[in-house]
Amino acid sequence: MMFSSSQVSTQLRVVTGGRGWGSVRVVVADDDVLLREGLASLLNGNGFEVVGRAGTGPEAIELTRATTPEMVILDIRMPPGQRTEGLEVARQIRAEFPEIGIVLLSAYVEVEHATELLGSGRGVGYLLKSRVTEVDEFFDALGRVGRGGWVVDPELVSELITAPRRSDPLAELSQREREVLKLVAEGRSNAGIAHQLWISEGTVEKHVRSILTKLGLTDSAEDHRRVLAVLRYLEAI
Questions:
Q1: Distance between CA atoms of 214 and 177, rounded to whole angstroms?
Q2: Nearest alpha-carbon partner for 39 in 18, 63, 76, 14
Q3: Residue ranges covered by each domain of the chain
Q4: Cβ count within 10 A of residue 108
Q5: What does the pLDDT look like over 156-210, one tens digit per residue?
Q6: In whole angstroms, what is the distance from residue 144 CA to residue 131 CA?
Q7: 147 near 161, Cβ under 8 Å?
Q8: CATH topology for 164-234?
Q9: What values do phi and psi take at 101, rounded to 5?
Q10: Is 47 within 8 Å of 20 (Cβ atoms)?
Q11: What CATH class does 5-153 carry?
């Protein structure tokens, strides 16, 4: 779904109260000045500290090196090619500053980009730009990335679930296990999944263990295996 910058900037005028984020330092990078400034205003009004604004990939890297923020939010498509420059920036930032959280924004669902980003480690997010206007969800996603988690936009996950596959890595999973994996792919915690599906957290834990076992992911820490479970699915699309 494409969301125009004018719609985004209008929605970003909504002012919400402080969310107890502390002083999280952020660099915002997007060549659309309306979105960039609107996003910076929204962040500054909710406890974040925007320490840099960039319109190109090189500017984003330079600002990150100069300010060492806790998080970088950047568009996938940036000048000069408007293709995957933001992803290249994310790779470089992750290589130089693995502790910095990275959130990529995109106007379109792009599966391969989400797959690569998830594989880069903890503290990463992939969101559609339309998600920015859903303020509570947007800040919830930033919070999870800031705590070292990872987030995949629900619309992307929904498209993956219904997309035709060359092979189905989830063939052995029950319908409920597929529902749980969908929410895992969005970056939800066990408690969040339990709330969403109206089941107990203990039941979610059993489903997650079953999913990991059926996918053959039994030798790593659970947080890492959860990411691998999602990657196993994405790579089969």
A1: 10
A2: 14
A3: 5-153, 164-234
A4: 12
A5: 766 655 555 555 667 788 889 888 988 887 778 889 899 999 999 999 999 988 8
A6: 15
A7: no
A8: Arc Repressor Mutant, subunit A (1.10.10)
A9: -70, 140
A10: yes
A11: alpha beta
